[in-house]
Amino acid sequence: MKPLRCLSSVRFGSFLAYSPRGKSADSVKSRTMIRDIKNVRSGYMKRVADRLREEMRPGKRAEVLREVLGNDVLVVPCPRSSPLVKGALWPSKEICDELVGHGLAMKCAVLLERVTAVPKSSTSAIGERPKPLDHIRSMTVVKQQELELRKITRITIVDDVITRGATLLAAASILQHHFPEAVIRIFAVVRTKSYDPEVGSILDPVLGEVSLNGVDADRKP
pTM surpassing 0.90? Predict the structure, then answer.
């Protein structure tokens, strides 16, 4: 097997938009939405998945997300920033389960695990946020699952929020290394609008790309 290297880019899709600092009504509402998702508020992700399924119908706004979701897609929850502790909240896994339950994915498999903790990007200074290679070194593939899923051709890594995309680019790189024939994509329920402080509409499905910019990740849009 070839040495594991970080991908130069990977395609992603997201459904909703979030502003950390905006002052408009939708921007403020988006911060409540983030808290509900991250705290795995009972029933919240089911409602989001209901809306996502509706909006992915032909001619609807989120039809573009068929590139990253579908009933032939294996969804993989993105690991948290530290090794999982029994009973801990794991929003990404909850999201995967809802996607499968709503017919938006074929199956959920915990293919990746964090073996060493990395600092949380949300609480780190800009220059101290983990880079893709830091994430690659801190994660590994769950071997038993890897062997069972060799025939999978479409894999989408799922997370609650995408900001720069460093964690997700690393996760995609690891899975592409172990599943070289599979098409690897990313889906995040929410996209952070860091450079545009206001959210015009929380419902804002997009397709874009996370790329390696030197040693760090860059997301567009």
Answer: yes
